[in-house]
Write a structure and sequence with these properties.
single chain; 466 residues; 9-stranded antiparallel beta sheet; 6-stranded antiparallel beta sheet; 45% strand; rod-shaped
Length: 466
């Protein structure tokens, strides 16, 4: 057990999150994301990690118990049970109760199959013992620092239930049952609780990667998720706040402000994940990095090219000989600033500004700017979850045009709005949607899969319900 105790000591240096609860739900933490996890989801997560993956069995396997000595065999002969060890953990069940303001109460019920050698007088044979155990541990976290916390297990209680003893000869008397029960009651808690401590810490480390993770966003950069503060518990949910640092390639961080937001109730959901508007804006700025696009105004590039040229022709001054040269009309589209997503009740829009330069390149190489327009776009947003990522798709909702300058004296652009709308819808929006198709990677909170999700849009908050 020395190696196990050393392992337990080392693991205590690391901790995680969800086994804790030192903040009250009313304390507001300003971060990019907030989560509420239901008790049922917690139970599923811990049951999978501790029981279904064999972690408990693995660390209990081969557990050796002290020898049991006493009187009470045939004719009250001296009885000794040696080499008693754990063979199998049968029918383990795990349950979780969230303790408001304290943390998590973890209960594991199982049947332990023990085997050893029994010597009654001069007769030696194998003995099998099946004992019911119920282990309850209160778990909380302290010492939050840089996304990690220290796990503390308090009040580990191990209660023994029914004991069945199987001996081929059947020579054990009822008094031996009492001796075995007494010895196991005295020794098993001191052996099982440290193992539970090790298992809990191992699960902590496994689940740490679901919150504290750096996830690439295509080739544009990364999002670094990290626990922002100590978790908090109520009787209804476990609350987690996460930071989401959006980093461009090269390491520069795209800043985003945070503000407190209330999550909707869990009801019958496993997980509620809230993404704040400011975080989404930083992620969009990372994804939508379209370089200036220059192309010839032809039907091959833009189906409405001829209609745009005809509309422009009506705006050119009559005496402008250079305006009607043989050089083809060219267009340059340049994004201005960063996109801005606006979340309102049941509605999401993206505001984006684009500079539209319409020009002719003269034979001497000089550029004649026929028009320099600023287009302020209102883009409708559709949202979906695919592969653990939030995928946005944009469509043109509204456009407002303003004239920045014209080298040839054009001043009235009112008839250009429909043509510019078609131009941007056919040339720029496919590029933006292509960039957005990568998706915004979401944190894999406690390994709960983001399947069969509902999406709600609230004022300043996007909510994902699982």
């Amino acid at each position: 057990m020395r190696g196990s105790l050393l392992e337990m000591t080392m693991l205590k240096l690391f901790g995680l999150i969800f086994f804790c609860g030192l903040l009250s739900p009313s304390q507001e933490v300003l971060s990019g994301l907030s989560c509420a996890v239901s008790p049922g989801a917690m139970q599923n997560v811990l049951s999978d990690a501790i029981l279904q993956n064999g972690l408990l069995q693995q660390h209990l396997q081969g557990l050796v118990l002290p020898n049991i000595m006493g009187e009470g065999g045939l004719l009250n002969s001296p009885t000794s049970i040696t080499g008693l060890h754990l063979v199998q953990v049968r029918l383990p069940k795990l349950s979780v109760v969230l303790l408001p303001g304290i943390g998590v109460q973890l209960t594991i019920a199982a049947k332990l199959e023990l085997s050893g050698n029994c010597l009654v007088g001069l007769l030696s044979e194998l003995i099998d013992i099946l004992v019911d155990v119920n282990i309850t541990a209160n778990i909380k976290c302290t010492n939050f620092e840089s996304g990690t916390v220290q796990v503390v297990i308090e009040d580990c209680l191990c209660i023994l239930g029914a004991i069945k003893i199987k001996l081929l000869s059947g020579l054990l008397s009822l008094s031996v049952n009492e001796i075995v029960l007494k010895q196991l009651t005295a020794t098993l808690p001191g052996l099982l609780c440290p193992v539970v401590d090790i298992v809990v810490n191992l699960v902590n480390i496994q689940l740490l990667g679901t919150l504290n993770a750096v996830i690439p966003v295509g080739t544009a950069g990364t999002i670094h998720y990290q626990l922002a503060s100590l978790p908090f518990t109520s009787g209804l949910f476990l609350g987690l706040d996460l930071d989401g640092a959006v980093k461009q390639v090269g390491g520069s961080i795209i800043p985003h402000d945070s503000s407190p937001s209330a999550l909707p109730p869990l009801l019958d959901k496993l997980l509620v994940l809230g993404l704040r508007q400011s975080f989404l804006n930083a992620a969009l700025s990372l994804l939508i990095q379209i370089p200036p696009q220059t192309f010839t105004c032809t039907p091959e590039v833009f189906s409405g090219a001829s209609h745009l040229q005809e509309a422009l022709a009506t705006l050119l001054p009559a005496g402008c000989s250079t305006c009607r040269g043989t050089s083809p009309l060219s267009i340059k589209l340049t994004l201005l600033g960063n996109p801005l997503i606006l979340l309102e009740e049941n509605k999401a829009t993206v505001e984006l500004s684009v500079m539209i330069q319409v020009f002719i390149k003269r034979l001497d190489g000089d550029i004649l700017n026929l028009l320099l327009l600023k287009a302020d776009l209102g883009l409708n947003v559709r949202m979906s979850i695919a592969g653990g990522r939030l995928v946005l798709g944009l469509s043109l909702g509204s456009i407002s045009l303003s004239l920045e300058s014209s080298d040839v004296g054009i001043s009235n652009i009112s008839n250009l709005k429909p043509h510019c709308s078609s131009l941007l819808a056919e040339t720029l929006l496919p590029l933006i949607n292509g960039a957005l198709s990568i998706g915004i990677p979401l944190p894999n909170v406690l390994g709960i899969p983001l399947t069969k999700v509902d999406i709600q849009i609230l004022a300043g908050l996007l909510v994902i319900l699982v």
